[in-house]
Design a protein that fits this description.
By secondary structure, the protein is mostly helical. It is built from 5 helices and no strands. Helix 2 (39-56) packs antiparallel against helix 3 (63-87).
Length: 183
């Protein structure tokens, strides 16, 4: 059974990482006072983060490493948005955007908040995926490899057949409970 570190699952996990990072960067940029980013810039950033994320998804990641990558991606997106604004590729970007120090500090704060939130979300999701695969592996190991169709599934041994049955209020609790055994 392929696990969450197989290529298919690594691609899926990195795509989720990339989408979350991109959307939160755009949201952080808008809330921080920037304009709407160009979709082409978002696609370029998402593809780059997805490629990097595929390499990092070879093992389960905790909040700290995810936050570091998210903070770096937020910084990269901020730089992309700033370059886009200064080159004039999107006219709505320049309307109402100021480059004062307080705006830059507010923008940086929102990008870091977005990175922390995304890291918490992604670390929880990564732990859930790895936990699910661990539970599936344990369940598969417990199942018998092959049970012939003409025999019932094995049951617990009857080591306590010679014990007397309980009396009184405990009549419903019997050590001989379970499906009938084919003698």
């Amino acid at each position: 059974m392929p696990g969450p570190t197989s290529l298919r699952w690594r691609l899926l996990r990195s795509a989720a990482f990339s989408v979350v990072a991109t959307q939160l960067a755009a949201l952080g940029h808008l809330i921080g006072g920037g304009g709407r980013p160009d979709p082409a810039i978002l696609l370029i950033g998402a593809a780059t983060i997805g490629a990097i994320g595929t390499g990092l998804a070879r093992q389960q990641r905790r909040w700290g490493p995810i936050f570091a990558v998210m903070a770096a991606s937020q910084l990269a997106f901020h730089l992309l948005f700033t370059v886009e604004m200064h080159t004039g590729t999107m006219s709505s970007m320049t309307i109402g955007h100021s480059s004062t120090g307080s705006d830059a500090g507010r923008m940086l704060t929102f990008h870091l908040i977005a990175a922390a939130f995304a890291a918490a979300l992604l670390a929880t999701g990564d732990a859930a995926v790895f936990g699910l695969f661990g539970a599936l592996r344990r369940a598969v190991r417990v199942l018998p490899a092959h049970v012939p169709a003409d025999r019932p599934l094995p049951t617990a041994p009857f080591a306590d057949l010679d014990r007397p049955r309980p009396r009184g209020a405990l009549l419903s609790i019997s050590p001989r409970r379970g499906p009938p055994h084919a003698w």
